[in-house]
Design goal:
Blueprint lengths: L22 H9 L6 E2 L11 H12 L12 H15 L9 E5 H11 L7 E6 L5 H7 L3 E6 L9 H11 L4 E7 L11 H11 L5 E5 L14 H4 L4 E6 L11 E5 L2 H15 L4 H13 L3 H23 L11 E5 L8 H12 L1 E2 L1 E2 L10 E5 L4 H19 L1
Parallel strand pairs: 1-10, 3-4, 3-5, 5-6, 6-7
Antiparallel strand pairs: 2-8, 7-8, 9-12, 11-12
Helix pairs in contact: 2-10, 3-10, 4-9, 6-7, 11-13
Keywords: Aminotransferase, Pyridoxal phosphate, Transferase
EC number: 2.6.1.-
Protein name: Aminotransferase
Length: about 400
């Protein structure tokens, strides 16, 4: 096994070097070592990929689709994405010039921010939110500005957004990261709430990067894309990981105005060249003949959500009813006198339940913990039993 030569030990990117890996992964891997633990940490659907989608990938392999695809993704998939967005959310994008297929939504986020940020530019990030936004902004030389939304029920209000832009300097702010349905909160913006944001940013020299990966997982209301209200300044991020349980296929996409996509596609080409062909053909099938596939999954998620939220509140962890995604985000009672990390560690070690501490999702997450209900109802019920006993022991 080679050891790093002493002459190059200090040859390192000084932005990346001090960063740790995602705290979501840190805790998931740490808790995986605890025997008998029920893990409600990762946001990964526990369903299998639909059979007809798997068959499309297999057929691609049989047909020897083993050569480079177009860098922006096979045209057939981009056409399927365009048709899907138009049918489901009434937004229109030219598959030739306004869509890029990426290696999951994560690459789409990176490419999009890379096409915007110059060193010193500020990106507004409402927290708690998806853990990767902040380090990506830092890696690209930008300055992440966290906006704590806890006191507003996890909503970024137009009033608060305007105040932060004024404070940070409108000439310095280049983008707003918006994530909805929200991870970790499950918050879903209504049309009126989105309009508040639009009214603030429409005249500013800034983009909105709208991560809508959970768009198909809403309960009781239809998802409204920000791109419908602000098409010229919205960079839409989406993918197949959550809607069709295709996390391992790694297919995401960017949809945005042509001039922006031209630059984002350059970064995509530099980083990955092109996505995998079998995964792209599977995604094409999912968005062509599998638009209704998420319905059955969504029904099961909603049943789990209703049960787990009722239990959490009954046990003593204040939890708002999430309107989307598959997470609960609960408040840790002040009487326990535990930070989010301390609580998560103690619950794992003593209660044998794995959760993600809220601080993994930014400053606004302190004092909370996230549970994923993308797990079986049997596991969820047993986890609630264990949480109840753990909580009673904490109080005694």
């Amino acid at each position: 096994m080679p050891e790093l030569d002493s002459t190059v030990k200090n040859v390192v990117n000084k932005t990346i070097d001090p960063m740790g890996i995602s705290q979501i992964r840190v805790f998931a891997e740490k808790f995986a070592k605890i025997s008998g633990l029920i893990k409600l940490t990762l946001g990964e659907p526990d369903f299998n990929v639909p059979e007809h989608v798997k068959m499309a990938a297999i057929e691609s392999i049989k047909e020897n689709d083993s050569h480079y695809s177009a860098q922006k993704g096979i045209l057939g998939l981009r056409e399927a994405i365009s048709n899907y967005l138009n049918k489901q959310f009434e937004i229109q994008y030219d598959p030739e010039t306004e869509i890029v297929v990426t290696i999951g939504a994560t690459e789409a986020i990176y490419d999009s921010l890379a096409a915007i940020i110059n060193p010193g530019d500020k990106v507004l990030i409402p927290t708690p939110t998806f853990a990767l936004y902040i380090p990506i902004v830092k890696i690209l030389g930008g300055i992440p500005v966290q906006i704590n939304t806890t006191e507003d029920g996890f909503q970024l209000t137009g009033k608060k957004l305007a105040q932060v832009i004024e404070k940070e300097g409108a000439d310095k702010v280049k983008a707003l990261m918006l994530n909805f349905p929200g991870n970790p909160t499950g918050f879903v913006y209504s049309k009126n709430q989105l309009q508040e944001i639009v009214d603030v940013v429409k005249d500013k020299n800034m983009f909105v990067v709208s991560d809508e990966i959970y768009a198909e997982l809403t309960y009781g209301r239809k998802h409204i894309s920000l791109a419908k209200l602000l098409p010229g300044k919205t960079i839409l991020i989406n993918g197949l990981s959550k809607s069709h349980a295709m996390t391992g296929y790694r297919i995401g996409y960017i949809a945005a105005p042509k001039d922006f996509v031209t630059n984002a596609a350059k970064m995509h080409a530099f980083v990955v060249t092109a996505p995998s062909n079998p995964a792209q053909y599977a995604a094409k099938e999912a968005l062509t003949n599998g638009i209704d596939d998420p319905i059955a999954m969504r029904k099961i998620y909603q049943e789990r959500r209703d049960y787990i939220v009722d239990q959490l509140n009954d046990i003593g962890y204040p939890t708002l009813l999430p309107e989307g995604a598959f997470y609960t985000f609960s408040e840790i009672p002040a009487e326990f006198n535990l930070t989010a990390i301390e609580f998560a560690n103690k619950l794992a070690e003593e209660g044998k339940v794995g959760v993600t501490p809220g601080v993994a999702f930014g400053e606004g997450g302190e004092g909370h913990f996230r549970m994923s209900y993308a797990s079986s109802m049997d596991d969820i019920k047993e986890a609630m039993k264990r949480l109840r006993i753990f909580t009673e022991n904490l109080k005694n």
